[in-house]
């Protein structure tokens, strides 16, 4: 397993190109299962989760090629087995995204129950309840979901008890080929859902209400792949992570291809802390100008357009360095403070009470060995290590590589003293 050695405090300078969005790429790649014809993608980020997705599709019979440097993927979805096996889904919970497309296209899907992960139990009951309402027969045996549709699925009204991003994405993929009209109430508003919906509409799906809490889908008989390659938009969470890095190291940085319109809550939170943003032109160039002294903040994670839970760990590090008392409330996942114990090893002053972290700052962070536990927590440990005085070793950084394209290389280019070592 690899580890990162980071010597801080870092002073960074330069420009960063934000890569393609992981959480948009994954549903778009799984949606290839809705087709017989070949699909072409571009700006696909070079991530372990993309590798896992392509290998999972290949295990079903699909053929693919991936030009990693150019970010181009070609998939010929020749499905032989409608099975998403545990071997792959255990590596990436997003394997649940095979469920909707397989059921819609083939009337059958066997998908391993995604295990929980460090941040929570991650159940999929909302996904299963929704496809049952559309007429699927669903059983869960030996750790597998087995969904079948003896006759065409019938559109109906589906109410999600809680907002679920991949639940909405799975249901979109089923409803576009179901008979009649489906209404999704309490649908996720996340940009990743909108981008999947727009892709399906480009293929002939009839969808209204994307980006609102009520989405209406009129089923069609067949979808036709788009003529042009499917372009994966920039990653709003990676962009937010760079803002956290600039803020923690007090380094003005220039972000290129930033998905500005998807980041209002992040810009608002960091502006309240005193960070200044200069957004120039339509190409998403954002100049981030952090203040010398950060103001404290009370913030809570919410479904989009609220402050993203995937930015919670990163902003927490910034608040450790702010002058005063801050609070961070995590409302989406039940166990998403695993990074706090690691940050306290660097000298952070954080108290957890229920789902609220209270932070006293500014803390003088000093380098120490740490261990990554999940994807976004590993990013926050990098942010902290860059701000800390001295040397930090972060082990188990495969978590980082799942969701960030070569973060250490990008940081080195900006002047960070960071190296990747293999760790027994
Ligand atoms: C997506 O996960 C993202 N993953 C997550 O990003 C992100 O944190 C999350 O949405 C919230 O924004 C992908 O898009 C691949 P949910 P998802 O269903 O869809 C509960 C990252 O770091 N729930 O919106 O799995 C659930 O437990 C990852 O890139 C049920 O109870 O999240 C959670 O408390 C981490 N039953 C809440 O709803 C269900 O059937 C929101 O989960 C489904 C969800």
Annotation keywords:
424 residues; alpha/beta; 4-stranded mixed β-sheet; 14 helices; 31% helix; binds ligand EPZ
Q: Any chance you could write out the topology, listing elements then pairs?
A:
Layout: E1 2-8, E2 14-17, H1 22-30, E3 39-42, H2 48-60, E4 63-67, E5 72-76, E6 83-84, H3 86-89, H4 99-106, E7 108-112, H5 125-133, E8 137-141, E9 144-148, E10 157-159, H6 165-175, E11 181-185, H7 191-202, E12 206-208, E13 214-218, E14 230-231, H8 236-248, E15 253-256, H9 264-272, E16 276-280, E17 285-289, E18 298-300, H10 312-320, E19 324-329, H11 338-345, E20 349-353, E21 356-361, E22 370-371, H12 375-387, E23 390-395, H13 398-403, H14 407-413, E24 417-422
Parallel strand pairs: 2-15, 3-14, 6-7, 10-11, 18-19, 22-23
Antiparallel strand pairs: 1-23, 1-24, 3-5, 4-5, 7-9, 8-9, 11-13, 12-13, 15-17, 16-17, 19-21, 20-21
Bound molecules: ligand EPZ.
Description of the molecule:
This protein is of the alpha/beta class and 424 residues long. The protein has helices spanning 22-30, 48-60, 86-89, 99-106, 125-133, 165-175, 191-202, 236-248, 264-272, 312-320, 338-345, 375-387, 398-403, 407-413; strands at 2-8, 14-17, 39-42, 63-67, 72-76, 83-84, 108-112, 137-141, 144-148, 157-159, 181-185, 206-208, 214-218, 230-231, 253-256, 276-280, 285-289, 298-300, 324-329, 349-353, 356-361, 370-371, 390-395, 417-422. The protein has a 4-stranded mixed beta sheet. α5 packs parallel to α6 (165-175) and α11 (338-345) packs parallel to α12 (375-387). The structure holds ligand EPZ. Ligand EPZ binds at residues 22-23, 26, 94, 120, 122-127, 162, 164-167, 192, 309-310, 332-333, 375-376, 403.
